[in-house]
Recover the amino acids of this structure.
């Protein structure tokens, strides 16, 4: 059996600011957590965040978020394997740019 300090997960509820923009120049969502630093393997769940913003609009709202801290084992695993998984996000193309 694993010791509890190795696999324990802490839950923290914090206030946050959610910013969503859907304009010609930008399409993004940004969450600013108050006084909490998120580390490798941590999970963040934002409550009542807008899922849609009409085109041409920007929404900034106050909400709450639950941060679930990764255990020491999960944090170590994420740090060890994170570089390999990052490569899955990349897409490379070696075409000449002409139509195929």
């Amino acid at each position: 059996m694993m010791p509890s300090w190795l696999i324990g997960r802490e839950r923290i509820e914090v206030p946050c600011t959610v910013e969503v923009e859907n304009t010609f120049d930008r399409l993004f969502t940004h969450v600013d957590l108050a006084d909490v630093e998120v580390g490798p393997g941590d999970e963040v769940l934002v409550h009542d965040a807008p899922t849609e913003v009409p085109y041409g609009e920007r929404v900034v709202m106050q909400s709450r978020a639950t941060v679930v801290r990764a255990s020491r084992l999960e944090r170590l695993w994420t740090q060890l394997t994170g570089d390999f998984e990052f490569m899955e996000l990349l897409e490379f193309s070696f075409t000449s740019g002409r139509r195929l």
Notes: The beta strands are 11-22, 27-33, 43-47, 57-68. The mean pLDDT is 80. The chain has one domain: 10-89.
